[in-house]
Write a structure and sequence with these properties.
Elements (H helix, E strand, L loop, with lengths): L8 H22 L2 H23 L6
Helix pairs in contact: 1-2
């Protein structure tokens, strides 16, 4: 009935993905390649979760 009031987990994941990629880019620019690698790996995991939810036909699509 009030599904429009429920938070959208897909939207939250997309935001977190974008923020993680931005942090990774800043680490790469500053020369911290190790932290860049960790953040890039974390972003890849978030991307896989996003695509999984989209394939399941999540309503936040």
């Amino acid at each position: 009935m009030f599904s429009f009031l429920k938070p959208d987990p897909l939207k939250k994941l997309r935001k977190q993905y974008a923020e993680t990629l931005e942090k990774a880019m800043l680490c790469q620019r500053s020369g911290d390649i190790r932290q860049y690698s960790f953040l890039t790996e974390e972003a890849e995991g978030l991307y896989k979760e996003i695509t999984r939810l989209e394939k399941e036909g999540h309503p936040g699509r």
